[in-house]
């Protein structure tokens, strides 16, 4: 039995006018076709907020302000454990028009979030944002 590797990942729950940004992974990426909150891996020496600002700038070419912590959850994917820290964020400038990692960007009302096919690590945050209890 191989030992699990923990991968620290951050994600932005970007809110604008009561809507939340959902991003669909490009087909050639891991979890291709699944929806997620944008973000990425936290690098050594970065705080989660620093990593999130960097990742959103690289991925969506927009600046954000991190407004607070939402939740952290661990999900096993293959031999790895994804520790996903979701944080609430606001856009500093205009909304993103494209993404390096995604083929579709959609603004959804919180209650619409569960209707999308989400990547497993994002499901607890989706349930919380939609006001539904999370299942363990």
Automatic annotation (TrEMBL):
GO terms for molecular function: 8-oxo-7,8-dihydrodeoxyguanosine triphosphate pyrophosphatase activity; 8-oxo-7,8-dihydroguanosine triphosphate pyrophosphatase activity; 8-oxo-dGDP phosphatase activity; 8-oxo-GDP phosphatase activity; metal ion binding. The keyword Electron transport does not apply. Its cofactor is Mg(2+). Its EC number is 3.6.1.55. InterPro entries: MutT-like (IPR047127), Nudix_hydrolase (IPR020476), NUDIX_hydrolase-like_dom_sf (IPR015797), NUDIX_hydrolase_dom (IPR000086). It comes from the Bacteria. Residues 4-130 form the Nudix hydrolase domain. Gene3D superfamilies: Nucleoside Triphosphate Pyrophosphohydrolase. The keyword Ion transport does not apply. Keywords: DNA damage, DNA repair, DNA replication, Hydrolase, Magnesium, Metal-binding, Mutator protein. GO terms for biological process: DNA repair; DNA replication. It catalyses: 8-oxo-dGTP + H2O = 8-oxo-dGMP + diphosphate + H(+). Belongs to the Nudix hydrolase family. This is 8-oxo-dGTP diphosphatase.
């Amino acid at each position: 039995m191989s030992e699990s590797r923990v991968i620290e990942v951050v994600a932005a729950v970007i809110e604008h006018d009561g809507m939340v940004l959902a991003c669909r992974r490009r087909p050639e990426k891991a979890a291709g076709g699944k929806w997620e909150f944008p973000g990425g891996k936290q690098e050594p020496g970065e705080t989660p907020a620093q990593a999130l600002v960097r990742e959103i700038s690289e991925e969506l070419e927009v600046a954000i302000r991190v407004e607070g912590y939402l939740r952290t959850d661990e999900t096993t994917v293959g031999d790895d454990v994804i520790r996903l820290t979701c944080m609430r964020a606001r856009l500093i400038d205009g909304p993103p028009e494209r993404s390096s990692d995604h083929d579709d960007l959609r603004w959804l009302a919180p209650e619409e979030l569960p209707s999308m096919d989400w990547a497993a690590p994002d499901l607890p945050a989706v349930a919380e944002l939609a006001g539904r209890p999370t299942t363990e």
